[in-house]
Fold:
Amino acid sequence: MRRVGVVGHPVAHSRSPQIFGHWFDRYGIVARYDIIPVPPEEADAFFADLPADLAGVNVTVPHKETAARHVATEGAGARLGVVNTLWRDGAIVRGTSSDGTGFLASLDAGAPQWRDGTGPALIVGAGGAAIAVADALVAAGREVVLANRTFARAAEVAAKVGARAVPMADIAAALAEASLLVNTTSLGMVGSPPLALDLAPLPSAAVVTDIVYNPLQTPLLAVAAAKGHATVDGLGMLLHQATVGFEKWFGLLPEVDAALRAKVAATL
Ligand SMILES: NC(=O)c1ccc[n+]([C@@H]2O[C@H](COP(=O)([O-])OP(=O)(O)OC[C@H]3O[C@@H](n4cnc5c(N)ncnc54)[C@H](OP(=O)(O)O)[C@@H]3O)[C@@H](O)[C@H]2O)c1
Structure:
C-alpha cells in the first residue's frame, strides 16, 4: 500500500486526511494518508533522508523552509525557498509550493472574471500565505500591491516577488484602482477580529476573496457580497492546493467537487 501524509508540528488539526481520503474512495486508490508529527529539532534529519516507505508528503508549519533546504525545488518552491509538497523522482526527492497554484485554481473556479480585470491585485497581509499568493499573481502577469499592518514586511515580500508595497494609511487609494482584493491576514478567522476595511472606494467589478476558510463567509466577504462584489471563500484554495500532491503521487489530477467541499466544510 502506498503511504503519503502531512508533516508538521503541531499537525493533528490538518484536514488533509479527509481531502485525500475522499479522493482515494472516489478514484479507487489503495493508499494511506498519515498525520506525521515531526518536532523542529528532528526536521533536518527527517527531510535529509525521507523515510523510504513514503511516496511523498505534504509539509506544513513550521517545516516548509527546512524541507526546501533538503530537496530539489521547482517552480514556486524554487522561487520562494519554501515547499509544501514533496515527491520522488527516481532517487531524487523534489518539492514545490502548491499554495499559489491552489489560490489561482480556486479563483478560476469561483470567479473566472477576475482574469478580465485590468487594475492591480491588492493583497492585505504579508505573511507566509501572502507571499505564495503574491508570487502566483505576479507569475500570472498581474500587477500586485501589498498592504500590511507591519509595513516593513509588506516591503520585504514586495521586493521578493516583484510587487509594490503601500502603507495601510494609503489603502483607500489602492482599493480605488484594484480589480481584485485578497485578504491573507488571519483577521476574520474564528476567534480573531474582522478585517476592518471600508470597501466604498473599491470598483463594483472587483472580485473579493479571503484565504481564511473558517468561517467560510468571513465578515469581509459578507460586506463585499452585500455591496454586490463577486466573492470567493478560502476553502477552494485549501482543496485545490492538495491536487498538486495527489497528481504527483498517483498520476491523476483529482476533481475538487461539491461533495468534497461539503465534506470538509462540515468539519469547520
Ligand atoms: N485557504 C488556504 O488554503 C490557506 C493557506 C494558508 C493560510 N491560510 C490562512 O491565512 C491566514 C494567514 O496565514 P499565514 O500563514 O500567512 O500567517 P502569518 O505568516 O502568521 O501572517 C499573518 C498575517 O496576518 C497579519 N495580522 C495578524 N494579526 C493581525 C492584526 N491583529 N491586525 C492586522 N494584521 C494582522 C500579519 O500582519 P503583521 O505582519 O503586521 O504581523 C500578517 O500579515 C491564516 O488565517 C491561515 O489559516 C489559508
